[in-house]
Amino acid sequence: MSEQTQEPGSSAPRRVVVAGAGMAGVQTAVALREQGFTGDVILIGAEPHQPYDRPPLSKAVLLGKSEGSAFDVDFEALAIELRLGCEVLGLRPADHELDTEDGPVPYDVLVVATGAE
Ligand SMILES: Cc1cc2nc3c(=O)[nH]c(=O)nc-3n(C[C@H](O)[C@H](O)[C@H](O)COP(=O)(O)OP(=O)(O)OC[C@H]3O[C@@H](n4cnc5c(N)ncnc54)[C@H](O)[C@@H]3O)c2cc1C
Hints:
Elements: E1 2-3, E2 15-19, H1 23-34, E3 40-44, H2 54-62, E4 80-83, E5 88-92, E6 97-100, E7 103-106, E8 109-112
Parallel strand pairs: 2-3, 2-8, 3-4
Antiparallel strand pairs: 1-8, 5-6, 6-7
The structure holds flavin-adenine dinucleotide.
């Protein structure tokens, strides 16, 4: 789900913040670049390790091979800023800001991709 903060007719949002670096968050960030979005894209994830795909990982663990399920995405080349090991603690829509462990993060458009949490 996303919260659009731009008024109709205003300029395009310059800063998209995606909360949650799972499948939904990663695919959203990548899709923004694939569709030509040139503003800032910031992907925030609570887990400290590189984003990974859960279903293949669970199958690999069962087979005794727990490596290789990280998303094959070059975040740096796509100019997607990854902030890992950073939990989002709250949302202040009126201020267009998230509160995180590392301090407030402003956004123009927020994508909440925190899964079932
Ligand atoms: C063990 C296992 C096996 C699975 N096998 C299959 C399968 O075989 N087939 C299938 O179709 N589906 C399977 N699934 C389900 C599939 O993994 C989910 O449907 C999919 O991961 C959902 O993606 P998502 O990005 O919406 O949420 P998630 O994968 O839950 O990602 C959400 C991310 O947001 C982060 N996050 C949450 N809260 C915060 C916060 N406050 N601040 C910062 N980050 C936060 C989490 O750390 C997480 O990385 C499986 C799930 C599990 C757990």
